[in-house]
């Protein structure tokens, strides 16, 4: 059968919870063929990242070209890009190869507030890559950095989404409320330049949330490759993440990963 193909451009998580590993499991669940360009290798477990090594930008580019020259992709997502050189190289290939339906998860700050990108890398993300995306999916911390606005409420999230839209020219901004407290948990703000939508799902009470951001952007890219329009792709992906959270895996001593293969689990 003809099967949609998706590309993830992201880092490896040795603990298997986030990054490339989460993306490929998410793609498989959505019955799309997953391909990958690895940007960095993290040594990591449920307690955190203990080491990270960048892949040379030309090797990242070679992976993207090898996939696109032969197989071709219907959509792509980016995750952890690590440094300014890799971001610039990825942006250039997206343009040169006219990669469609690009979802940029602007991984800069972990859910716990840990900074993963330096200022020059953030600048390249904002000026070179996000403008080429159909959708950018910042969490509250990343939305603060991209908009320059402190975010403490839904109204702040709405204002930030508008600033990011105007400053980058990206088609749609989705500000994720995952790291927010109280009633704002799990509430996301969508802004497409005309309409704002407030997207909600039920809150799942678990500490095992590792990989939620990666999983969301991967599921959106998979849905786009299958032909969903953008808002439908986002709503379906949110539902998938909520299900995966309710079957999250209690492994390791820290934050376990979400359960990507929940239909196969007997709870
Ligand atoms: O969730 C952000 C993220 C993305 N990709 C990789 C990661 C992390 C967070 O630790 O390790 C590879």
Automatic annotation (TrEMBL):
Q: Name one GO cellular component term.
A: cytosol
Q: Which InterPro entries match?
A: HMP/HMP-P_kinase_dom (IPR004399), PM/HMP-P_kinase-1 (IPR013749), Ribokinase-like (IPR029056)
Q: Supply the name of the protein.
A: Hydroxymethylpyrimidine/phosphomethylpyrimidine kinase
Instruction: Give the superkingdom in one word.
Output: Bacteria
Q: Name one GO biological process term.
A: thiamine biosynthetic process
What Pfam families does the record point to?
A: Phos_pyr_kin
**Annotated pathway, please?**
Cofactor biosynthesis; thiamine diphosphate biosynthesis; 4-amino-2-methyl-5-diphosphomethylpyrimidine from 5-amino-1-(5-phospho-D-ribosyl)imidazole: step 3/3
| Keywords from the UniProt entry | ATP-binding, Kinase, Nucleotide-binding, Thiamine biosynthesis, Transferase
Work out whether the entry's keyword set contains Chloroplast.
Answer: no
Q: Which reaction does it catalyse?
A: 4-amino-5-hydroxymethyl-2-methylpyrimidine + ATP = 4-amino-2-methyl-5-(phosphooxymethyl)pyrimidine + ADP + H(+); 4-amino-2-methyl-5-(phosphooxymethyl)pyrimidine + ATP = 4-amino-2-methyl-5-(diphosphooxymethyl)pyrimidine + ADP
User: Per the database record, which ranges form the Pyridoxamine kinase/Phosphomethylpyrimidine kinase domain?
Assistant: 13-258
Entry keyword Nucleotide-binding: yes
Q: Name one GO molecular function term.
A: phosphomethylpyrimidine kinase activity
């Amino acid at each position: 059968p003809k099967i949609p193909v998706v590309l993830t451009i992201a880092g490896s998580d040795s603990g298997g919870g986030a990054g490339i590993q989460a993306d490929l499991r998410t793609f498989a669940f959505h019955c799309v063929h997953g391909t990958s360009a690895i940007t960095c290798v993290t040594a990591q477990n449920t307690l955190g990242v203990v080491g990270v090594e960048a892949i040379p930008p030309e090797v990242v580019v070679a992976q993207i070209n090898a996939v696109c020259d032969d197989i071709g992709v219907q959509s792509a997502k980016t995750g952890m890009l690590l440094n300014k050189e890799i971001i610039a190289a990825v942006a250039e290939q997206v343009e040169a190869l006219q990669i469609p339906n690009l979802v940029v998860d602007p991984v800069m700050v972990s859910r716990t507030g840990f900074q993963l990108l330096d200022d020059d890398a953030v600048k390249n993300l904002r000026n070179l890559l996000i403008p080429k995306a159909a959708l950018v999916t910042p969490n509250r911390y990343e939305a603060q950095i991209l908009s320059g606005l402190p975010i403490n409420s839904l109204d702040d999230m709405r204002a930030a989404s508008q600033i990011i839209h105007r400053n980058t020219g990206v088609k749609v901004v989705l500000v994720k409320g995952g790291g927010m407290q109280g009633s704002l948990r799990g509430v996301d703000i969508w802004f497409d330049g005309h309409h704002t939508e407030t997207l909600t799902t039920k809150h799942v009470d678990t500490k095992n949330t590792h990989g939620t951001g990666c999983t969301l952007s991967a599921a959106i890219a998979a849905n786009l490759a299958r032909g969903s329009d953008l808002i439908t792709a986002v709503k379906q992906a949110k539902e998938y993440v909520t299900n995966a959270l309710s079957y999250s895996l209690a492994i390791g001593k820290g934050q376990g990963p979400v359960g990507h293969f929940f239909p196969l689990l007997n709870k």
